[in-house]
Amino acid sequence: MSEFRPHVPPGESPPELTPRALLLGVALGIVFGASSTYLGLRVGLTVSASIPIAVIAIAVLRPRAGKRAILEHNITQTLGSAGESVAGAVVFTVPAVIFLGYPLQVGLTTLIAATGGLLGVLLMVPLRRYLIVKEHGVLRYPEGKACAEILIAGEKGGTSARKVFVGMAVGAGLMAFQRVLQGVRLTVSWPLSFLKGASVDADFEPALLGVGYIIGYRTSVLMVAGSLLASFVLIPVFLLVGSGLTTPLPPATDTLIKDMSAGDLWRNYVRYIGAGAVAAGGLFALAKALPSIVSSIVASTRSLLGGAVESQTVRTDRDTPTLVLALGSIGIVGLIWAIPAFEMNLLGAVLILGLGFFFAVVSSRITGEVGSSSCPLSGMTIGVLMATCGVFLLTGREGPAWSRLALMVGAIVCVAISNAGTCSQDLKTGYLVGATPVRQQGALLIGVLTSVLAVGWTAYLINTGATEEERVTGPVLVPPEALKGREVIESKTDQRIYRFVRLDRDALPATLPAGNYLVDEAMREVRYRRVDGIGEDKFPAPQSRLMAVIIDGLLSRKLPWDLILLGAALAVFVELLGFGALTFAVGVYLPLSATMPVFLGGLARKLADRAYRRVPDAEEEPEGTLYCAGLIAGASLVGILATALAFLPGYDGDGGFHPKAALLRDWPFAREGLVGDLALAGLLALLGFLIFRSARGRSAAAR
User: Fold this and answer.
1) pLDDT bracket for residue 703 (50, 70, 90)
2) Nearest alpha carbon to residue 13 among 573, 328, 437, 435
3) DSSP structural state of residue 110
4) pTM of the shown model
């Protein structure tokens, strides 16, 4: 094998860690971090931001005074990709605090994202010499290699960011038309009269169509198939079998099945089936990665313990000193232990450091083999939570009191795992283009610290903006012990301070369901039932719900195991058929209205691949992918802003729109009925056509 030569030779020192590269990277990290947070909460998926950020960097940062700008472009891409990486892990785990009975706080969310993100970088960097350098030619790093090729082509003048910006404009415009002006309804729904409880639903979400195109037709079909099973089989079966029952069917306690809507059936039964399927699918993904896990641990440990340290005098070989990385990792874990907001003990800190290093190695290696998009983050996080809860149970720590600590450990490690994989991918890009490793590693740390602000505030604003509080009439008292250790929160309705408490059915009258409540501490009276925005129809956060189910079920031993195991059996069946069980399982958990636009985007990809004579669902398809990445970013950002309208005076909570902004809410196309349905369906078709046209490359246009 011939000796590898980076694109920029070590003897050259073009501009790299410049102020303009830092500023643009930070800005793009915030933009794509916020959009990924919105997307993850909305549909449980995020898409890689590295390639569109690289394209934008090439378009914006032009070479100055005859100097090469490729290393500046690489720094911008490195900074920007940190936002998407951290956001994906945060939305998969942190919102689970809501389902465990604690408020979602912007400060704590930001701290989890920052400490986990920094820890992921520090734990991965010592592996660079082995995974990136010594294993060059063995580990593919598909996204890292593709990003390097784009940067190199951009230096030669072969790449344009026009499609990204056009996609952003289209996504933002269409989202503003629907979410701000209310020019069309959010969801089109056609009930099936011949199948009780079933209906064909689709949301008008430009971002989700973009996601469908990027993940491809095959994956989008698998996802919508899971939702079709839930909507057309599971819910009608529960209605058919349960309509004759005269008592509630557990785990429901106070409502007969015949009196339930489709949404009630999903919340009481189908979501547990979906959770079981997602858990089993995640474990299948983890099991498939076991050979890589074993080999990566063995090989990386051998590399760290043996072998001489190579010279760092060459620019392209300068790393952050290992001692600095080790002390930094220990310092961050010590900080987590010391900060009161985490409520961390010594056992939890040890688990974070041990599990964090183990899975950071695994994530970095698997990213090198199959890419970050196929890295089983959910499966590894499930493994972390099961290991953490297992240790707690073995040491006598069980019950709801330990659920929050288990989640803190799982969330921090999940962010570290995600960022370690992204870090290794970025360092591979840098290795190929000839970057200075220590400068790129510094950029990664800066990217984490700046993007976490966008992630924390976006999650908080989305949740608070969509939260509803229902006044509880009549005296409902709670015992003093129920208030111990519970956090205080300001009511959205009357701006008074209450204790945020999760109450079970046995602590409430028959008219009130189990859930989160705001309690007047002095009087010990329940004032409001709080329905957080995250966890409901608009932002179901499926992975976070699963994490809460796993933690609560293991530590309190109160899972509806029959439904969980039924979901796991579905995942086994799908896996035996040769399909990806995890993707199908996420579809079972999500409503059809959310997965249908993903399928429509995948259908546009299939038609484009056929019309333009491309390999179906190929990874190397820059034309439509760049447009759809922009579409996702533009639509997600406007979606966040629209949700924030709830904080403006005059908001009445009606449908998530501000009356003064919803100028088109009374025109015919925004009303319920056939005209409104046709208008929404027409917009979906138009957007699908725009995506199809965007995928046409120059060669196709010339034919």
Assistant:
1) very low
2) 435
3) H
4) 0.76
